[in-house]
């Protein structure tokens, strides 16, 4: 396979693992990053790094142009970029809420809409949205984040219905607690409480999420769309 793949927020954490996995499968991978320099590892893998804040429409348009010039229209989009601003409801400002929604939901809408243009024309494509177990189960102190991640399920399933007959699949991956910068912010006490609820009794590895994304992006997954796939060690069972 040598498809044009774009992973948003692919410079670190889960996105970096996804970029590595897809490049390893032979795809032409582009990633977006927001600041600093993209990791040397990606440069060595031959990945294209484009600077882009998904909350800025012009930057999204510019990033797609750069990717299309280098690799052709985007055939696989992994909408991975996301943020959290955790706090209890009464302490949650309007800005805490809207910033998280603006990035995780509206930013995802923006990149998906832009990628879908080329996919519709080609009558083929793969869209993978990165949600979270807390979008399905809820989480105290994460009302903004959980709302944004739950919204991706309705968004993705609507797109599955809208785009399915054009050979485009849209699936949602719902990771549990994966060892990345995002979860390293948790206190030891929070980690202990969470660990007790995970049947697999460990945090997940970024590569385990990446393997699921790689499968959903593959030919073999052509008949899977509108699915919400947990990669959570059993944490979200029943949701
Ligand atoms: P991370 O914080 O290491 O990486 C997030 C990436 O998103 C970074 O590359 C960052 O630059 C990018 N990003 C954030 N805001 C952006 C914006 N406005 N424009 C462009 N890029 C932006 O986090 P991690 O853990 O790798 O998370 C990746 C995705 O997986 C996120 O959507 C997160 O919500 C989700 N997730 C993570 C879990 C975990 O346990 N680490 C669990 C469930 C979901």
Quick recap of the structure?
Pathway: Lipid metabolism; fatty acid biosynthesis. By secondary structure, the protein is of the alpha/beta class. Helix content is 47%, strand content 15%.
Q: How would you explain this protein's 3D organization?
A:
- The model has no long low-confidence stretch (mean pLDDT about 95).
- It is built from 9 helices and 7 strands.
- It has a 7-stranded parallel beta sheet, with helices on both faces.
- The longest helix is centred in the middle third of the chain and has 29 residues, at about 95-120.
- β1 (about 5), α1 and β2 form a beta-alpha-beta unit.
- The protein is about 45% helix and about 15% strand.
- The protein has a single domain (about 5-230), classed as NAD(P)-binding Rossmann-like Domain (Rossmann fold, 3-Layer(aba) Sandwich), CATH 3.40.50.720.
- It has helices at about 15-25, 40-45, 55-70, 95-120, 135, 145-165, 180-185, 190-195, 205-215, and strands at about 5, 30-35, 50, 75-80, 125-130, 170-175, 230.
- It is globular and about 45 Å long.
- It has about 240 residues and is α/β, with parallel strands linked by helices.
- Bound molecules: 1,4-dihydronicotinamide adenine dinucleotide.
- 1,4-dihydronicotinamide adenine dinucleotide binds near residues 9, 15 and 182.
- 1,4-dihydronicotinamide adenine dinucleotide binds near residues 15 and 83.
- GO terms for molecular function: 3-oxoacyl-[acyl-carrier-protein] reductase (NADPH) activity; NAD binding.
- It is an enzyme of class 1 (oxidoreductase).
């Amino acid at each position: 396979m040598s498809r044009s793949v774009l992973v948003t927020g692919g410079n670190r954490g889960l996105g970096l693992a996804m970029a590595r996995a897809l490049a390893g499968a032979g795809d032409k991978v582009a990633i977006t990053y927001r600041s600093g320099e993209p990791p040397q590892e990606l440069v060595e893998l031959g990945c294209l790094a484009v600077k882009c804040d998904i909350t800025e429409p012009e930057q999204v348009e510019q990033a797609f142009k750069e990717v299309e010039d280098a690799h052709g229209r985007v055939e696989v989009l992994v909408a991975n970029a996301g943020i959290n601003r955790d706090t209890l409801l009464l302490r949650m400002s309007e800005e805490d809420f809207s910033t998280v929604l603006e990035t995780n939901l509206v930013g995802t809408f923006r990149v998906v809409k832009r990628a879908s243009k080329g996919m519709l024309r080609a009558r083929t494509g793969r869209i993978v949205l990165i949600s979270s177990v807390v979008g399905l189960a809820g989480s105290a102190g994460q009302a903004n984040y959980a709302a944004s991640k739950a919204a991706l399920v309705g968004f993705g399933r609507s797109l599955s219905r809208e785009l399915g007959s054009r050979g485009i699949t849209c699936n949602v991956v719902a990771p549990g607690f994966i060892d990345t910068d995002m979860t390293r912010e948790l206190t030891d006490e929070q980690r202990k409480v969470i660990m007790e609820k995970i049947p697999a009794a460990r945090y997940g590895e970024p590569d385990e999420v990446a393997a699921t994304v790689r499968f959903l992006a593959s030919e073999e997954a052509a008949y899977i769309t509108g699915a919400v796939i947990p990669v959570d060690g059993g944490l979200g069972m029943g949701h």
